[in-house]
Design brief:
With 417 residues, this protein is an alpha+beta fold. The protein has two domains: 264 residues, no CATH class; 121 residues, no CATH class. The protein contains 13 helices and 21 strands. The strands form four sheets. Strands 1, 4, 5, 6, 8, 9, 10, 11 and 12 form a nine-stranded mixed beta sheet that branches. A six-stranded antiparallel beta sheet has the order 15-17-16-19-14-18, with helices on both faces. The longest helix has 17 residues.
């Protein structure tokens, strides 16, 4: 079996990509999705949100994990196929996918990735998953008999792959959509058999791929494959359900933004007492401008109307531990835990997280409004750090990475026929 393979993608019909393409299902609340598709005079009857968040077409009090939601998703999916809004390619293809966000451009490959290689950790993880979220994706896949949410993967340096995709993406795209957030999504179908083979062999030569985003989707695909193989008297491993929908970018093109923290209180400390406790492990300097950290071990601290630059004392950075040396880990181990008594980032209600896409102004707003007592701006995690953690078989701390730009749902789906 190959690490990746081409597949017969289900895609918007010519001229329908802008009608279909939607934000990922997990970045919108149900209310936000409902407003997008049902707001305005005409609404968006063909938005993929009708499939990825089908509760928007049911009563507002419907449980998002109710069986009705998956039934409605299937109905909407079939309707879009019957009406010709979505069409399946006649032959297996790869797809070049380009994302443009301002000056940032990244070009990757849409492919079906091997569940077997996921199970053996050649496709490497860096996060724990939650059973309820895995269950949701399993139910969605089974209801549709398709994978519609792509897993975002990264691959090591591969100049041959970069060159092939640059050539594939040099002509008129088969889909070209600029989303409401200004992100441009372009897709080119790759059909040439020789090029397909070159890409397959190039990926087979790679030691590993890395999950950037989509741990629940890949885990769900693995569960579906295991269940179907158990019922199949003669599985070959090449069945469509033994692969999962992915978009794979070169790691050096991917963009991780900072994932910042805000806290509700100072654990009973005065401002001066709080700063004194921090100074036991960090240097602390008042900063007139906003502080956007530029290196490992540097942080911005915002208290009402005032920024500070924090730098952890170098001897506290464990350089040989890929998890402990992360900025998110250093902050937790040297400040959030010992000073603020925030030790469980997943469950403690005194802490919240702000993606870097919202800017440092959002940190100021949360604190100056009185909603939060303090905010911490972090240096963004590097892709090489993520890969080192995955290679070590370790797990990243919660809320370590915020990838931008994000993939669109609906541009390509993977049928499990």
């Amino acid at each position: 079996m190959s690490l990746i393979k081409p597949f017969r993608g289900l895609r918007p019909a010519p001229g329908r990509a802008a009608d279909v393409a939607a934000p990922p299902y997990d970045v919108l609340s149900t209310d936000e999705a409902r407003l997008i598709v049902h707001g305005g005079v005409e609404g968006r009857p063909w938005s993929f949100l009708h499939i990825s968040k089908a509760e928007i077409d049911l009563s507002p009090d419907t449980d998002h994990y109710s069986p009705q939601v998956y039934v409605k998703s299937r109905e909407n999916f079939e309707r879009m196929i019957v009406e010709g809004v979505l069409r399946q390619d006649d032959t297996p293809c790869y797809y070049a996918y380009r994302l443009v966000m301002g000056e940032h451009v990244q070009t990757g490959l849409v492919a079906a990735a091997s569940v077997a290689d996921y199970d053996t950790n050649r496709i490497r993880k860096h996060e724990f998953t939650r059973p309820d979220k895995e269950d949701d994706r399993v139910h969605q896949i089974e209801a549709l008999n398709a994978q519609t949410g792509p897993v975002l993967l990264a691959h090591p340096d591969a100049p041959e792959v970069d060159a092939i995709l640059a050539q594939a993406a040099s002509g008129e795209p088969d889909a070209d959509v600029t989303a409401d957030d200004g992100i441009r999504h372009m897709l080119w179908v790759i059909r040439d058999a020789a090029v397909l083979q070159r890409l397959t062999l190039a990926f087979d030569a790679m030691p590993a791929l890395y999950i950037a985003d989509g741990h629940h989707r890949s885990a769900a695909a693995s569960r579906v494959a295991a269940a179907r193989n158990a019922k199949n008297s003669h599985p070959t491993g090449e069945e469509d359900y033994n692969y999962f929908l992915s978009v794979i970018f070169p790691h050096h093109q991917m963009r991780i933004m900072d994932y910042n923290r805000v806290v509700k209180d100072l654990n009973g400390l005065s401002t001066m007492g709080f700063l004194a406790r921090i100074a036991e492990r960090f240097t602390v300097a008042v900063s007139p401008p906003r502080v956007r950290p530029s290196k490992v071990g540097e942080y911005g601290l915002y208290l009402p109307r005032q920024w500070y630059r924090l730098s952890i004392r170098p001897h506290l950075i464990p350089v040989d531990d890929p998890v402990a040396r992360l900025d998110v880990s250093l902050l937790s181990e040297n400040l959030l835990g010992p000073v603020l008594d925030i030790k469980d980032l997943r469950r403690d209600k005194r802490i919240d997280f702000v993606g870097g896409i919202r800017g440092l102004g959002e940190l100021e707003r949360r604190v100056d409004s009185g909603d939060m007592a303090a905010a911490f701006a972090l240096h963004a995690t590097e892709m090489t750090d993520l890969m080192a953690v995955a290679d070590a078989g370790e797990v990243m701390p919660p809320k370590s990475t915020w990838f931008e730009p994000k993939l669109a749902d609906g541009l390509v789906s993977h049928m499990l026929d």
